Amino acid sequence: MVLQKRLDYGFNGYQVPATPRATRSARVIYFIVTKRVPFRKRVEDSQVGAFDLLATVAGKLLLDKECSRASTNTSSAEDQSGVEKTTVKEERQDGDQSLKLETCNHESTSREFYVSELVSQTNDPNYSSRESPSLQNDAHLGFASVITSSDCSERFDAQKLMNGKIKNEMGSLPCKVETGPFLCGTSGGCLKPEAENKRLKDEELHGTDKVSTGEVADTCPLEDPVVLDGKPPPLVSSDSSGKLRSCGDHNPLRSFPLRRDDVNVVSRDDDEKSSGCTHPSRIKDSFRSTPCIGDRRIRKILASKYWKVASKLKDVTFSNSDENSKSGYYGRSTYKCLRSERNYPFKKRKFLHYSSVSNSDGGTSNEGISDSPEKSINGNTASVYPKMHGVTGESSSLADQRKSFHSRDSHVKLRIKSFRVPELFIEIPESATVGSLKRTVMEAVTAILGGGLRVGVLLQGKKVREDNKTLLQTGISHDDQMDALGFSLEPNPSQTSPLLCPGSSPLKCPCDTPLPLARHPANPGLVNQVTCDPSPEPHMLNLGNFVESDHDSAPTDMSLGKNLTDSKALVAVPAMSVEALAAVPAHRKSKRSEVVQRRIRRPFSVAEVEALVQAVEKLGTGRWRDVKLRAFDNAKHRTYVDLKDKWKTLVHTARISPQQRRGEPVPQELLDRVLTAHAYWSQHQAKQQLKPQQPETCLLLYNTPK
DNA sequence: ATTAGGG
DNA sequence: CCCTAAT
User: Fold this and answer.
1) How many whole angstroms separate alpha carbon A204 and alpha carbon A480?
2) Which of A163, A267, A443, A634 is the most buried (most CB within 10 A)?
3) Domain range annotation of chain A
4) Positive or negative torsion for Cα A35, A40, A41, A44
């Protein structure tokens, strides 16, 4: 065959060198995509460790899978010493992006995510949260974990557990809850918007009350269900949707100062929510275990069927109790399990839906990053905001309170307009449709976002690696440095939530298997491939790599691979993390090692149909392996099952009116042959089996319609 | 690993 | 195309 010509496109001005490809198959297009995820966050608290900051940002990203936008910015930040409070605010902005990501949902357009998190132990009353409008859930939200899916019965258990814990925590923590002086306002540094200020004020006024443990306890349990359930929809792809969960540990035991460990950003869970991923910190984390998962989630996301499902909200992270076991089960489930899940979306959904949001902490201790609710089904904004938002409205939300506790430092406000997403390489056949291209890119993007990425903090162009340093120590809190502050998204080696694992956190995700990604064995040909550049970081992973083989075996990609570090290419699963996005089907295998993706669709060409028809005429139906060997031995991407399916569709096509046929028209002559051969072989099933070898004869026979 | 069928 | 069940 002729070498295909390849089109190389560079997004964002990057051109990807074409890799030599041996394949003859279709032309491949490479894209390098740099995506940016837009969002702004405000982080206040110079005291917050860099790690926390990262966690916060990461959490946000996860939440936002839906839309991404380009460009990063940081906006002003101020630090005020003394207050420890962190506020993160996110907003979406449409930005510029080289690739524009759009949400698929029709439902709601705007969704806002909030992540908030953080951790602080401050007493400040002021923590501000977001302005987001929806506050409805806030109160509830504040707390923590939310168990979302209504469906699951399991959830109940979880709730129970949670409640219990929460209560306990509350009980123990009352003191902590106090509202502190309003640091923000006072500390002059705060840049909070007016709205926030108001909030703060409100908080001051009300905060205390809210804080009371009793309240917390009450609210929490209820909330979750309410919020989450409210939007129940069906759809959510499991993972996609949410994925983020915050991991807040709720240990009652914990001491206040949070550690980095405490903060977890977890995001994806997949269906299985089970394995927790992260960090639970050292202590027992009762609450939530987060799943580790990138894979699962991706998978879920991918599964197209599921996509439609409504929102999922949050995974519930349950405590260890029953849930865990369950979750564990799923999590660990093997590939097969996953698959099965796919098939049975319902099941999955149940699990998935529960995305957990763990936000909670009992208000006390720590907080993980909470994410906002994933998507609500409807996409209502409100649903989205549920938890954290409360902040605004009620200052009282637990989270707020928590934050407030310790705040004493000055705050650093950051505005991140967008994140730069690592480069992605996408390879797609020329014959692919624009839609498929979009999907492919989406998959790549989502794979990255959902697959676990880490946030890198750049200060004056230098990577700030010391997660434990405070912003103050790092210099991030200095106004003059704000301009030099940048964030980047990097592939996270372990799928587990990147942030989670940072550093030394002791936590481990059960899920995590140490295994890195599995390499895709070579499929000879690659059809689509998406790879992510390895980031410099130590653990880089490649996110998705989707490899498909074509007839040609073109090792070619490997060359690309070079770019990627050694990356093992993962199969990229198209995942849309966000429901909204969702659209891409993806399947992943369990374990991050592999991501399974639905094979790309490769319509049969007329030539292939011809070959198939000819082979079937000779061999008959029912001997697909032989047909494959005879006519498609070189087409690795055509399996005997594919041939059988194609034959099935050909027969169907031949029987319907031409007007009803779609796709590349198949010559009527071939269709006639299909019908003839089909009829012939149908009749001679038994006989033919005996003498399959004589094509000629067969042909003669069929000519005469039986 | 194949085949047959349903989805 | 995927997935299963049955071979």
Assistant:
1) 31
2) A267
3) 434-480, 606-655+669-680
4) positive
